[in-house]
């Protein structure tokens, strides 16, 4: 896991330009991110071959911040699965796509409802990011591979811890101040701006406004008109993906109704390199804990990973 040094209280430690840049691995295939509600869900996603899990609490309201205990347990659970995967790949695992670190993206959202936060909620969000980033340091020695020779000291970590954030102003624009503060506090960890962006009046302008704020990915269905369905928002998503490849903004994770039966169509229609979805067990009500269907994660991951980049 990438260490993230955190010092001080509630303020960022230094100017954002001086932070260690996050450098994502080059995409050789389309990546799969699974939204989960438990440590067991993270373990299932990692075991089934997904690239990342977004860990939330209370998905019934769209996801809120999980406890720091759940985050720690999730990182260790994912690390166990990655270690087992690497051992199965053999001694030359470090150069293989399946040996890449597993991403645990932690939702930072103090409550359900809208995405405009008062001062108390803002303080809580900054504190959560700071505590979880500190936890990354504590766990680093437990999740980083032990080199067997001086020539292999750059072995990739087992887990990459990141954050999922989103905040809007009362006028419905991106809250640039809070987003910048949260990204600075994350201290170089990967940061995703979530589907709050689909609620803004001009999604392309909002997307462009994230440039320079320390946001690395944007999760979207293509705007409010898409009503949470990626295929309905494909035109807008295609535009955002094109902008991302021109370095005009963060990379784009496509979400909204992505399932095994339509994943190939969604990827073809949008050009995305990353998809996000839930894989709950069938016939679960929305107001009960969402148990992840590991077999479904495996099915869609195998399907999506077959699409080369």
Describe this protein with a few key phrases.
309 residues; alpha/beta; eight-stranded parallel barrel; 8 helices; 8 strands; disordered N terminus
State the end-to-end CA separation: 25 Å
Approximately how much beta-strand content do the residues carry? 5-15%
The whole-number mean of residue pLDDT values reads: 89
Instruction: List how many beta strands DSSP finds.
Output: 8
Radius of gyration based on Cα positions: 18 Å
Spatial order of the strands in the main sheet? Answer: 1-2-3-4-5-6-7-8
How does this structure look, described?
The protein has 309 residues and is an alpha/beta fold. It has helices spanning 39-47, 68-89, 119-143, 176-186, 203-209, 234-245, 263-270, 294-305; strands at residues 31-36, 52-55, 102-107, 159-165, 191-193, 217-220, 251-255, 274-278. It has an 8-stranded parallel beta barrel, surrounded by 7 helices. Helix 1 packs parallel to helix 2 (68-89) and helix 3 packs parallel to helix 4. The model is unreliable at 1-20 (pLDDT under 50).
């Amino acid at each position: 896991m990438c260490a993230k040094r955190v010092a001080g209280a509630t303020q960022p430690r230094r100017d954002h330009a001086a932070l260690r840049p996050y450098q994502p691995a080059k995409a050789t295939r389309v990546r799969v991110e699974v939204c989960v509600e438990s440590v067991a869900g993270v373990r299932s996603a990692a075991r089934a071959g997904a690239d990342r899990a977004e860990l939330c609490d209370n998905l019934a309201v769209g996801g809120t911040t999980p406890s720091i205990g759940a985050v720690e347990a999730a990182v260790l659970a994912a690390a166990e699965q990655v270690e087992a995967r690497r051992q199965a790949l053999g001694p030359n695992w470090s150069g293989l796509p399946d040996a890449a670190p597993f991403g645990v993206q932690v939702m930072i959202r103090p409550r359900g409802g809208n995405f405009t936060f008062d001062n108390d909620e803002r303080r809580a969000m900054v504190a959560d990011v700071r505590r979880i980033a500190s936890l990354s340091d504590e766990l680093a020695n437990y999740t980083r591979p032990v080199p067997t020779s001086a020539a292999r000291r750059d072995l990739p970590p087992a887990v990459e811890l990141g954050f999922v954030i989103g905040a809007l102003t009362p006028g419905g624009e991106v809250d640039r101040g809070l987003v910048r503060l949260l990204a600075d506090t994350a201290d170089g960890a990967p940061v995703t701006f979530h589907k709050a962006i689909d609620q803004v009046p001009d999604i392309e302008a909002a997307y462009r406004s994230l440039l320079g704020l320390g946001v690395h990915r944007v999760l979207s269905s293509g705007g409010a008109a898409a009503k949470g369905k990626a295929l309905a928002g494909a035109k807008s998503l295609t535009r955002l993906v094109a902008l991302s490849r021109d370095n005009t903004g963060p990379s784009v994770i496509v979400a909204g109704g992505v399932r095994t039966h339509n994943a190939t169509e969604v990827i073809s229609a949008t050009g995305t390199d990353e998809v996000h979805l839930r894989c709950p067990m069938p016939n679960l009500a929305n107001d009960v804990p969402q148990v992840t269907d590991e077999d479904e994660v495996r099915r869609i991951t195998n399907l999506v990973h077959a699409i080369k980049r």
